[in-house]
Amino acid sequence: MTTSEDQYTAEPFVPEGASLSALRKAAAGCRGCPLHRDATQTVFGEGKTTARVMLVGEQPGDQEDRQGKPFVGPAGKLLDRALAEAGIDPGEAYVTNAVKHFKFTQAEPKKRRIHKSPNLREMTACGPWLAAELAIVEPELIVVLGATAGKALLGSSFKVTEVRGTVLEREIHGRQERLVPTVHPSSVLRADDRETAYEGLVHDLETAARALT
């Protein structure tokens, strides 16, 4: 089953009442938007169904696309360190992305694949997968990592710089949720002053840790 450009949505591929493992298997065959064509594989969320906190990033990166797991690249390693420093056990969190396929540009087949941000249509198309994850995990708190994840969850007007490090309460996919937005860890790696950027990320995650107590 494929969808036309005007009907990008993963909804027909999301089985109702499925477990996380069943969702993961179903997501491997998702053709809800064109991003599946160039990506190596679907990268679904990982973690416990009993996780109190869900971390939502933008999309898989190069390493995630190759390994099939979220946050296994350099940004993921930095995030794990920041979480632990803030008092959140990375092993107790559920981690996922707003978009499940890697979007990239590539000048030549053997050249490095350059990350490209998903557009609103692609984020919206992938929304049913995130909604299904939220319905199963039922986290006490969502940590929103970066602008793309924020727009996917909170709307196109979201600006991470305006609300980072604060506890928000919003209705997301029919559920009342608490959210703490912060920057994506990849932005820390790109920052001119990486130490200050990292301290800011840890500070925001400390807010999340306090919200869970």
**N-to-C series of helices and strands:** HEHHEEEHEHHEEHH
**In the CATH hierarchy, what is the class?**
Alpha Beta
Full CATH superfamily name: Uracil-DNA glycosylase-like domain
| Basic shape | globular
Total discrete domains: 1
Radius of gyration: 16 Å
Number of strands: 7
Number of helices: 8
**CATH fold call:** Uracil-DNA Glycosylase, subunit E
- In spatial order, strands of the major sheet run 2-1-5-7-6
Distance between the termini: 45 Å
Examine the secondary-structure arrangement and name the CATH architecture: 3-Layer(aba) Sandwich
The gist of it:
The chain is an alpha/beta fold. The chain contains eight helices and seven strands; from the N terminus they run αβααβββαβααββαα.
